[in-house]
């Protein structure tokens, strides 16, 4: 009996010790994180810096309970998708002497240009997010800060204009096999971002029917505000005789208009021959002043020695048109005949090449697209021999595109 009584205090002491260990410990936790200001606007033309104040509310049910509140990096999201982290630690000590306290952590965040470009391209805002941790109990809470790109260039990237010319500023070329030839492209854009384009060529093997374009070079070009970009193509293939087509196809963003296509004609590479006197080519259709449509067929009389014909279109001079004489329905007016000589050295607005065995042609859609509607044009035919020399020309004849 006495032994049992002696053992009771020992058991009671152990029980009390266990109860002491199980008592609730003093704790703290993060309750809320807000940013002031809640958002900011940045320029859309380069890297940006934004200043943000993080307000972290810390709760301490049992005081005192000191700790350190910290965050190791800024997480960047674009349209809700993670775009990367910006490692930069911020921290502040908390005394934990009151039930609720607000810590204010101020910083300047540097946003890389690539992230700004991406946000502008996607038409989305950027979200800066920080996750804060309390060292007292490892509790976490996050806060967000919205950033919008504004001002010039904040719109999504688009292309308003594309002009193609050969490296001598012409829109059609005749040259011997093996020559070097390049195309120069001039683009006008709005917004900022990355242009993705591809130079493509259709060689003489396919241009007699439906042109089959194949890739020549892929181009990625970043553009900023101010919208003018000039690109030069790689050397074009010139080893095959006949008509070739070249274009710059937009991959991203897509064009909102028909892209231009240039033509060049390759002749055999032969030894120089004495120059031949130029001869006149007789035009047989369409009548002067006729409307230009996809169904319009151009025709002329054959010229001996012609390896190819070039059908060229020029913008008619401003001013009232000379009255057309119905009695001369197969020829140009006297004024247009004079214009034909003057236009011979002018760059054509559009043109096509026709093999020497043919004396008529219609325009494909991509050629018609190079001639804006509501205007008058003069057209003429030039004969080219196998050496690339001009051996004949026609007078100019008027046509109008409704």
Characterise this structure:
This protein has 402 residues and is mainly beta. The protein folds into three domains: 122 residues, Immunoglobulin-like (Sandwich); 113 residues, Immunoglobulin-like, CATH 2.60.40.10; 129 residues, Immunoglobulins (Immunoglobulin-like). Helices cover 12% and strands 49% of the residues. It contains five helices and 26 strands. The strands form six sheets. Strands 17, 19, 21, 22, 24, 25 and 26 form a seven-stranded mixed beta sheet that branches. It has a five-stranded mixed beta sheet with strand order 2-8-7-4-5. Strand 15 and strand 16 form a beta hairpin. The longest helix is centred in the N-terminal third of the chain and has 20 residues. The N terminus is likely disordered.
Number of helices: 5
Broad CATH class of the largest domain? Mainly Beta
Q: Unreliable stretches, pLDDT < 50, 5 or more residues?
A: 1-8, 18-25, 321-342
Mean pLDDT: 82
Indicate how many domains the architecture comprises: 3
What name is given to the CATH topology of the largest domain?
Immunoglobulin-like
CATH architecture label name of the largest domain: Sandwich
Structural class: mainly beta
Please, what is the CATH homologous superfamily of the largest domain? Immunoglobulins
What Rg do the Cα atoms give?
Answer: 38 Å
**Estimated helix fraction:** 10-25%
In whole angstroms, the N-to-C terminal distance is 124 Å
Major β-sheet annotation: 7 strands, mixed
Task: Give the tally of β-strands.
Answer: 26
Quick one: overall form? rod-shaped
């Amino acid at each position: 009996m006495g032994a049992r009584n002696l053992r009771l205090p020992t058991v009671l002491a152990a029980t009390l010790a266990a109860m002491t260990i199980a008592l609730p410990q003093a704790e703290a936790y993060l309750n809320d994180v807000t940013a002031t200001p809640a958002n900011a606007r940045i320029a859309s033309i380069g890297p940006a810096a934004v200043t943000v104040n993080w307000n972290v509310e810390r709760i301490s049910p049992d005081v005192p309970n000191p700790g350190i509140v910290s965050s190791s990096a800024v997480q960047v999201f674009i349209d809700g998708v993670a775009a990367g982290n910006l490692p930069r630690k911020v921290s502040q000590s908390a005394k934990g002497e009151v039930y609720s306290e607000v810590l204010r952590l101020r910083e300047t965040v540097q946003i890389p240009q690539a992230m700004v470009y991406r946000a502008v391209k996607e038409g989305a805002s950027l979200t800066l997010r920080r996750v804060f941790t309390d060292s007292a109990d490892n509790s976490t809470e996050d806060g967000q800060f919205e950033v919008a790109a504004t001002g010039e260039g904040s719109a999504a990237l688009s292309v308003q204009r594309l002009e193609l010319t050969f490296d001598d500023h012409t829109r059609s070329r005749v040259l011997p096999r093996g020559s070097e030839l390049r195309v120069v492209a001039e683009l006008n854009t709005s917004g900022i971002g990355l242009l993705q384009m591809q130079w493509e060529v259709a060689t003489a093997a396919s241009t007699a029917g439906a042109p089959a374009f194949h890739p020549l070079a892929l181009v990625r070009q970043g553009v900023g505000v101010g919208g003018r970009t000039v690109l030069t193509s790689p050397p074009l293939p010139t080893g095959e005789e006949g008509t070739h087509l070249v274009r710059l196809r937009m991959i991203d963003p897509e064009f909102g208009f028909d892209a231009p296509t240039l033509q060049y004609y390759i002749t055999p590479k032969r030894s120089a021959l004495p120059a031949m006197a130029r001869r006149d080519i007789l035009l047989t259709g369409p009548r002067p002043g006729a409307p230009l449509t996809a169904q319009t067929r151009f025709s002329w009389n054959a010229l001996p020695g012609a390896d190819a014909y070039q059908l060229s279109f020029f913008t008619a001079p401003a001013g009232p048109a000379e009255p057309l004489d119905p009695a001369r329905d197969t020829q140009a007016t006297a004024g247009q005949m004079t214009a034909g000589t003057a236009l011979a050295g002018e760059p054509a607005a559009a043109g096509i090449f026709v093999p020497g065995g043919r004396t008529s042609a219609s325009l494909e859609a991509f050629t018609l697209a190079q001639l804006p509607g509501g205007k008058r044009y003069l057209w003429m035919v030039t004969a080219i021999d196998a050496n690339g020399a001009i051996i004949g020309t026609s007078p100019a004849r008027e046509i109008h595109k409704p």
